[in-house]
Write a structure and sequence with these properties.
With 314 residues, the chain is of the alpha+beta class. It is built from three helices and 17 strands. The chain has a four-stranded antiparallel sheet, with no helix packed on it. Strand 14 and strand 15 form a beta hairpin. The radius of gyration is 37 Å and the shape is elongated. About 3% of the residues have low confidence.
Length: 314
């Protein structure tokens, strides 16, 4: 059966998938069997709504109410018929994009066509959504991308970084979100253990029905691994070493060709400059000869006139 899913989110352990659908329903599926485990009413408006799973299993949604007012909601899958809380936002028309930080239990909410990013905190009890602050600019955003936690700069207390697709300037703007603090020491409370580089299970294990929470690692270790590109460097020891070597040779040949052509262009420019110098010399000589010829012709004409005058006098 087709429900026209608009947004899909999966639990951290991989056991369930939640979707918001065009028929204004929220559905939860078993990720292994594909069977619908739960179906409940979602946002009242036909406009796009989106959802994310929180680390405690609750569901956060962002969409529209009946009168097209934007809002966000919090649901408990154990009782989807009654929302835990609802927070009204504004009456803008752009669809909302929620980004979840499970380490700090924060929600970043951005709207298509908006020029701001709102920050919300999920209460420790998991039943309330509290507005914290917002980033604002004078330029509308068409979409956003979020940097993984391991790519953040802890020296400036950066807790999130977004890449905003700028509509007016047709470029991507970097939006770092930082916590202002006087101390330059590493902030343990801002950077708890986060999702590491190692997979918690293989694809075959997942296909067999296994679920596993992500493997966490200390933030500083991940930051150091990222800065040294650990685990991401292409080497000649892999199965694709021949392909890598061929590509490197092709790049070297192209660089050599470019260098040779640059040398040829420089030589041609020098030849052109030399020819221009010769042309200027010839033009100067031609001008001098023309002037001399004109002067000689003038003297001949005067001599002829003087001769004609003497003959007439006689």
């Amino acid at each position: 059966k087709q429900w026209y899913q608009r947004r899909v989110a999966i639990t951290a352990g991989g056991s369930q998938i939640v979707t918001t659908c065009k028929d204004k329903k929220i559905r939860i599926f078993d990720s292994h069997t594909g069977e619908s485990a739960l179906e409940a009413p979602g946002h009242d408006n036909m406009k796009v709504s989106r959802c994310v799973f929180l680390k405690d299993g609750k569901i956060f949604t962002a969409g529209f109410k009946t009168m097209s007012q934007r809002c966000c909601r919090l649901y408990d899958p154990r009782n989807m018929l009654k929302m835990l809380t609802e927070l009204d936002l504004d009456s803008s028309t752009g669809s909302l994009f929620p980004y979840y930080d499970p380490d700090l239990n924060l929600i970043y909410l951005a709207g298509k066509g908006d020029s701001n990013i709102r920050f919300f905190e999920i209460s420790s009890e998991g039943d309330q959504v509290h507005f914290l602050n917002q980033y604002s600019s004078g330029e509308a955003q068409r979409g956003l991308g979020q940097m993984p936690k391991r790519g953040l700069d802890s020296s400036i207390n950066e807790i999130a970084r977004f890449y905003k697709l700028n509509v007016a300037k047709k470029l991507v703007s970097v939006v770092p979100l930082k916590v202002p603090r006087q101390s330059k020491a590493f902030a343990d409370d801002l950077y708890p253990n986060t999702v590491g580089l190692n997979a918690a299970m293989t694809a075959d294990e997942f296909a067999e029905g296994k679920n596993s929470e992500p493997l966490l690692a200390p933030f500083l270790e991940l930051q150091q691994a990222t800065s040294t590109s650990k685990g991401f460097t292409a080497t000649e020891k892999g199965d694709n070493s021949e392909e890598v070597a061929a590509l490197r040779k092709e790049v070297a040949d192209l660089k050599k060709t470019v260098t040779e052509r640059d040398a040829t262009i420089s030589s041609l420019k020098a030849d052109i400059s030399q020819l221009q110098g010769k042309v200027e010399t010839l033009e100067s000589e031609n001008g001098r000869l023309t002037a001399a010829a004109a002067e000689t012709n003038g003297e001949d004409e005067i001599a002829e006139l003087q001769k004609n005058g003497v003959d007439q006098a006689e």
